Amino acid sequence: MDIFWFLPVHGDGPYLGSQVDSRPATLAYLTEIAQAADRRGYHGVLVPCGKACEEPYIVSAALIAATERLRFLVATRPSSMTPTFAARLAAGLDRLSGGRFYLNVVAGGDAAELAGDGVFLDHDARYAQAAEFFTVWKRVLAGETVDFAGSHVTVKGATVPLRPVQRPHPPLFFGGSSPAGHAAVAEHFDTYLTWAEPPDAVAAKLKDVRTRAAAHGRTLSYGLRVNIIVRETEAEAWAAAEKLISKIDRSAVEAAHGAFRRFESEGQRRMTELASRPDLVVAPNLWAGVGLVRGGAGTALVGNPRQVADRLLEYRDLGIDSFILSGYPHLEEAHRVADLLFPLLPVTAPPPAAQAAPDVAFVSPFGDLQPARSAS
Fold it and tell me: How buried is 19 (Cβ within 10 angstroms: 0-12 exposed, 13-18 middle, 19+ buried)?
């Protein structure tokens, strides 16, 4: 099991829906969390994106030198940049970090936020655009010179001379619960990432993605995104869950769910539906209380160490090997999860960083020698 943590680039705190004892996303605080995750043996951290977040590429670049083995799973919206520019960012972060860069592709579900960035594609068109985008992205990082004319992406003579450490390209994670999302990941991406729903619902999603991937002659890996509330006893864990939402009022829940229902995201619809049930316990130890006011991953595994570990192992038995965990506040909970859960799980240690090997040199337009693109 590759265990990732979460980097709260939008801020942190011990309570959802409240500014009481909140912590801003300063570089010093994010460094503390990243270094804790690095020292405790987490495989990496997910660095989310959004208009209320510090830019994940910038945050990840700032934390490379502060960490040694930690991987950065950087969320990005392909509609917000060109594929060649994104490939240069990926190659740069991968080279400078020694192969510690992964990419989490976010097609985007909030039409209003996307419109603010000048993106006016509908739901299915965003997935089609992402597929074209990463067709170019993968080819230029593999060393090709690319001419491509699609419905959403057009490039001519696209190249990325400085190639990444990870060949042919850094791993691509992708989430989506709709048929269009499943079709896109099955054909174009490496790891299918789902939010934690009851195991039977997750199993159905994985089965559909596997079937679609097999039709393309492909085999994917699978990841799960879930919050964790683990304590020495089950009673303490449920008390911590109640404390987390203790400062939320009904008007905040109604406002949040009203906004979520406007999203063009099947995954968000499913999370909001779980958080709308009178009983927020939607499966053994699976609690939807986080989704009362938080968009995205709205469920948490709640219990004592053995209970939470057993639930994670149940998802592992479905075929999931990457687990992106989080807890509030993220600094203290990174240590708690490592203390209480890692001894009960087959956690894989992250490999050491690698060095970028230069290819055959060529003369750049500026007259200096640069690594050349190699055929592969």
Answer: exposed
Under the banding of pLDDT at 50, 70 and 90, the label for residue 375 is very low
- Count Cβ neighbours within 10 Å for each residue of 238-271 and write b for 16 or more, e otherwise: bebbeebbebbeeeebeebbeebeebbbbbbbbb
Q: What are phi and psi of 33, to 5 degrees?
A: -65, -45
| 346 burial type by CB count under 10 A (0-12 exposed, 13-18 middle, 19+ buried) | exposed
Confidence of residue 364 (pLDDT cuts 50, 70, 90): low
DSSP string, 159-214: --SS--SSSS---EEEE--SHHHHHHHHHH-SEEEEE---HHHHHHHHHHHHHHHH
What is the C-alpha to C-alpha distance for residues 120 and 364, in angstroms, rounded to an integer? 38
Tokens of 350: 């992250």
99-108, 115-124, 196-205, 216-225: range with lowest mean pLDDT? 115-124
Locate 150 and state its tokens: 């699609």
**Dihedral in degrees, nearest 10, Cα atoms 85, 91, 93, 98:** 180
Q: Tokens 């570990």 identify what position? A: 309
Sort residue 150 into left (φ over 0), alpha (ψ -120 to 50) or beta.
Answer: beta
Determine if residue 295 is left, alpha or beta; phi over 0 gives left, psi from -120 to 50 gives alpha, anything else beta.
Answer: beta
Q: CA–CA separation, 360 vs 277, rounded Å? A: 60
CA separation for the pair 35, 68 (Å, rounded): 9
**How far, in Å, CA of 60 to CA of 97, rounded?**
9
